[in-house]
Design goal:
This protein is mostly helical. 78% of the residues lie in helices and 0% in strands. It has 16 helices and no strands. It is globular, with a radius of gyration of 21 Å. The chain starts with 8 loop residues before the first helix and ends with a helix.
Amino acid sequence: MPQTAPAGQNEELGLPDSEETPSQTSTSGGAFASLRNPDYRILWWGGLFSFISVQMQFLLRGILAWELTEREGALGLTYLVFGLSMLVSTPLGGVATDRFSKRTIIVLAQGAIMVAAAGMGLAVLTGIVEFWMLLVAAVIQGTAFGFFGPARTAMSAELVGKENLGNAIALSLLSMNGTRIFAPSLAGVLAGVAFVGIGGAYVVAAVASLVSFVYLLRVPAGRKAEPSGRAPLAELVDGVRYVMQRPKLRRLMLSSFIIVMFGFNYVAFYAAMIEGVFGLGEEWVGFVSSASAIGAVIASIPLASRADSPKAKTAMSIGGLCFGLGVIAFGNAPTVIEAMFAIAFVGAATTTYQTLSNTIALAMAEDAFQGRIQSLMQLSFAGFGLAAAPLGLLAEQIGLRNVITIMGVITVAAAVAYVVAEGGFRSMNADLVQIDKV
């Protein structure tokens, strides 16, 4: 039976006294252990088809925005409204996850994603599409993600238990990144085919969302906390206070916010980089995105069986550093082939960082705060959307390559600052080993 640190020691480390850390548990059953749980397996398949739809729409949104405006600023604006929607809805999604049926939240959110995809497909096919419609779809999807993400991750933790939490998160990212290998390429190819086009590609994305919706209806309702009788805003403030009172959790979440906010923004400028800088067609946007996914999948499989290891914090920090260096390489790649290799490296680093940062954050949190902690972690993607618009405008002034390089430098700086604040790699490992040995 795992042991915990004495009272007070976990508080100093930023951990609840009663909870385990990734170092205290090991995933039994190998890389695919969580999939042996039938309920988690249903959730995983639902997520797989949802990710197919989301990945297709992510690329199609950029292609359509570019075709309608041919401005980097417009590309950034679509992600800005997405980010603003997530900024508002994600904290509410975390509170809802801790109070209501997780299945209901997941199903309703997936339904909204499906409706947005179908609506955009219909608008394009009927020839009435306008740029503002892209913004409306982005608002709907951003709001839906704000509820979907915290509920789905908290449901995963509930279904598999904390002993397999890292494994479940890694497998979730594996499904997401696996779809990135073919879904963006499929979207790009379909968009470039005359009798299908962007409208038909959106319809295919809507069908994938429908399949996900049907799967998620079969997910168990999950535990529902007793109503606290307090207002949602008060519970949200409790979640923020919970983080602020735990230094290690606070530092982890702050560094994650900055790293994702700036590092992940390279995806917002795929179309501009490939079509505007390299002068290639839409299908190449999908190919480069697939290179990122291939790197992510290569990292995901071994990571799934090691996500709960004593060296999780060190591996996470190295992943953050490599993430930033890969973005810098992408921004300075002289040819599209070298850009693809850089993006594959970024994909592997991003997956490593996301898997381990989410695992460690949730392992630090008590069950009653799982939804709110995950929602605060997911706010980094709202920050990514918020930063896209000013970065796009800046790219119009100083050049896209320079802006992508700046994004990578900020990411590296945030990763280095986290390691320094934690006392270096040796100190981070010592923290985990100390808890293990008590």
